[in-house]
Amino acid sequence: MGTLGELNVSDDPAMDFKEPVFALTNVDFWYGTKQALGDITIKFPINRVTALIGPSGCGKSTLLRCLDRMNELIPGVRLEGEVAYHGQDIYASDIDPVEVRRRVGMVFQKPNPFPKTIYENVAFGARVNGYSGDMDELVERSLKQAALFDEVRDDLQKSGLALSGGQQQRLCIARTLAVGPDVILMDEPCSALDPIATLKIEDLIRVLVKDLTIIIVTHNMQQAARVSDFTAFMLAGEDGAGRLVEYGPTQRVFTNPKEKRTEDYITGRFG
Asked: Do the beta carbons of residue 181 and residue 104 sit within 8 Å?
């Protein structure tokens, strides 16, 4: 068994991503003096769902937020290494983080609709980004993509806050889709939802990935097995920094993991 941080996927032909949407190379990340990520090198394939799994505090959400530069909103953070999006280092000095966040959407753990109408929730981001097309058509299309339109078609002027939790989360997904991203990051998007709402989100993920790349953080092993094509398992090292332990096709990681620590976590022996 390799030491924490050693990772070899070169012998796995399914991991040969010739044109990944994201390629991270030797990424280290700090909150002030506390190192949260250590030497992360990973590629995320286009039009696939990749699940990030691991116990609390192993850096999953931090890694996710490195992909849209959202960590920079926190004072005193520092990143070393390269985060390339379609081959372009998104931390280069000439890259606008707002443009990064337009192309890389984010869905959070708790649904966070704006205190506006359903219609205005979906239209908001498009308006901010200067959308000049048919807004009614865009709102309808985005709600349909998020599998919500049929439930709210007669209530578009109702507050988004009046929807159920599962509907609110799909509204947030519609709001993200309206801006036209090609990647959606999801940070435990179902943890606040009941099982029926969770299955609707999972079904939606499998539909959306035909046109988008989705990277999801989840603590639910069954969910990771159901929705993802690839799975990355992370653990915090003795220094507290999150490191990548194993990465591969989900079916292989769950049925024949290369690392005993991966097997122990998936089977519930720790974490």
From this structure: yes
How far out from the chain centre does Cα 36 lie? Answer: 18
**pTM as predicted:** 0.92
Task: Quote the Cα angle for 59-210-105, to 5°.
Answer: 45
Is residue 75 within 8 A of residue 251, CB to CB? The reply is no
Number of H helices, E strands in the chain: 10, 10
Tens digit of each residue's pLDDT (9 = 90 or more) over 119-129: 999 999 899 88
Terminal Cα distance for the chain, rounded: 19
pLDDT of residue 8: 44
* pLDDT for residue 271: 60
Pick the closest to residue 174 from 150, 203, 140 (CA basis).
Answer: 140
Rounded Cα distance between 201 and 30, Å, is: 32
**Angle CA(44)–CA(49)–CA(235) in degrees, nearest 5?**
65
Cβ neighbours of 133 (radius 10 Å): 8
The CA–CA distances, whole Å, from 215 to 9, 48, 207, 231 equal 19, 8, 14, 10
Q: How distant, in Å, are the alpha carbons of 108, 155, 176 from that of 37? A: 20, 44, 27
How far apart, in whole angstroms, are the C-alpha atoms of residue 152 and residue 160? 10
